[in-house]
Amino acid sequence: MVDEAGTRPGDGEAASGRFEFRPAIVEMVQRGASDLHLKGGRPPTVRVNGQLSVLPQPALKPEELKELAELLMTPRQLKDFAERKEADFGIGVPGIGRFRTNVYLQRGSMAFVFRAIPYEVRTVRELLLPAVLEELAAKPRGLVLVTGVTGSGKSTTLAAIIDHINRTRRVNIITIEDPIEFLHRDQLANISQREIGTDTLSFGDALKHVLRQDPDVILIGEIRDMETMDTAIKAADTGHLVLSTIHTTDATQTISRVLSFYPPHQHAEIRMLLSTALAAVISMRLVPRADGKGRVPATEVLINTATVADNIRDTQKALAIPDLISQGGMSYAMQSFDQSLMRWYQDGVITYEEALFNATHPGEFALRVSGVSGTSDRTFSDMQGGDQR
Asked: Against a cut of 0.85, is the pTM above it?
């Protein structure tokens, strides 16, 4: 729906003083930005390495954004937006790339956020993610949750796991996404990608029927409610590998969030189900490189060992996930955020200031850097084992 005119950045603005979408999206890609923000009264704004920067273009007008919506959205999407005041969809701009798009209202006028999606799916190793993710991709069953704040690399990580499965296993993969971001082509695996609103009406509708589609692997773009979580846990518990994301900051908060979907009288039952269905929680933070050339992932990894499962199901004990992660480094390739950050810092990839800013326990991190550790400090106790990041 976007034209293929060979407009150069700035041509449209110089000629007419009006906003033109293609030059803005081209400049976004040329700058290596992750996101493009458009809203009335402000010039287009891009996010590069986590920081917002205004493009040298005129401030947008509400009518220009309305025209853009009519250009990019189908009649059905426009109708849904008029009813719901929000919309998510994917677009492809010929010769430039694919973009996940969100349109919403602010102060009564439309606003957009475009997230760049690479054409090529990068591998676990190319993304500098822990090698244990490849082992998780080989599991025949279990629930793998990838967590983090918005923009922390959850979708990219999930795409890398799916890509690894696609290249190494003869399985049937069903994805349910809102919208489809990365495009996967069949390799060893058979992949069916379903988009909410286009291929199915909702996550709930898709999940009601997914088990009849003979899946080995199910990817759920995001778990947002009890119904979706319930299906994910039960599918994992009955012999499927289920991959999904949750907007939580670490493994402890993730397990608490899972429980929060359910009423208190069901917590004991859900703890029992989760203790057997969960395979791992992978939590993400992106940290700027010291050389200014992008960001690297700081990654917390929780593997559901027998000890972790006992802690999850025991309603009489508080969750002790950080201690269990520290204790599981050597044997199970678990790691905390602070261990991941310490390795990047020791290798000179990130600065001390960035490591400290992103650390879960900045005080303990600073002491460890200075060579001091307390007798109760197990945060870095297993750092000598493996090459996890």
From this structure: no
Q: CB of 40 within 8 A of CB of 60? A: yes
Give the model confidence (pLDDT) of 31-41 as tens digits: 999 999 999 99
Number of domains in the chain: 2
Q: How far is CA 280 from CA 152, 252, 253, 303, in A?
A: 18, 12, 14, 5
How far apart CA 157 and CA 149 sit, in angstroms, is: 13
- Which CATH number characterizes residue 219's domain? 3.40.50.300
What's the residue count for the chain? 389
One domain for residues 71 and 98: yes
* Structure confidence by residue, pLDDT tens digits, 244-259: 999 999 999 999 999 9
In a domain, 5, yes or no: no
Residues 294 and 234 in one domain: yes
What is the per-residue pLDDT for 4?
A: 36
